[in-house]
C-alpha cells in the first residue's frame, strides 16, 4: 500500500512541480503512532520558501481529493528537505561534489559501514570521499550500489 501511495503521489505532484520549476526530493508515506503522514519534500536552486510549499500543498491536496487513493485518514505535509538533504538519486551526488556528506552502507568497506567527509567525485558508479581519522585524511571509494542512505552533512 505504501509504495502504491508514493508512486501515485509522485505522478500527481510531478506536473505541479514542473510548472513551478521545483524539484521533487522525496516522498514518504509513513505511520507514526496511530496517524498516517504523506510527506512530500521539494526544493529548488537557492532553497524553497513556505509560500511555495503552501501552494504545492494546496494543489496536490486537490489532486489527491479527486483521485482519492488513500483510504485511511492522513496528514499531508509539503516541505523543504532541510539542510541535511537526503541524496536519493545519482544526480544528487553529482550536484553535491565538494560538499560534506554522510553515507551509510549495506555492508562495511575497510571495516566501517558509515562515512562522513567531503564528496570528491562521482562517476555514476563510484562515490569517492575524503574523510578524517583523527588528524589524517583518508580516501574511500564506495560503490553506489552499496549505499543504503546518504545525506548532506552539516558541520559547525
What does this structure look like?
With about 160 residues, the chain is an alpha+beta fold. The protein has two domains: about 80 residues, GMP Synthetase, Chain A, domain 3, CATH 3.30.300.70; about 60 residues, Ribosome maturation factor RimP, C-terminal domain (SH3 type barrels), CATH 2.30.30.180. Helices cover about 25% and strands about 45% of the residues. The protein contains three helices and eight strands. The strands form two sheets. The chain has a five-stranded antiparallel beta sheet, with no helix packed on it. A hairpin with a 2-residue loop joins strand 4 and strand 5. Helix 1 packs across helix 2. The longest helix has 18 residues. The termini are far apart. About 15% of the residues are buried. The model has no long low-confidence stretch (mean pLDDT about 95). Required for maturation of 30S ribosomal subunits.
Query: Could you tell me the radius of gyration in angstroms?
Result: 18 Å
Please state the average pLDDT score.
93
Number of helices: 3
CATH superfamily of the largest domain: RimP-like superfamily, N-terminal
Principal-axis shape equals elongated
Share of residues in strands: 35-45%
CATH T-level topology of the largest domain: GMP Synthetase, Chain A, domain 3
Main β-sheet, spatial strand arrangement: 7-6-5-4-8
Measure the end-to-end span.
40 Å
Low-confidence runs of at least 5 consecutive residues: none
Name of the CATH first level of the largest domain: Alpha Beta
Quickly give the CATH architecture of the largest domain.
2-Layer Sandwich
Number of domains: 2
Order of helices and strands: HEEHEHEEEEE
User: In which range does the helix fraction lie?
Assistant: 25-40%
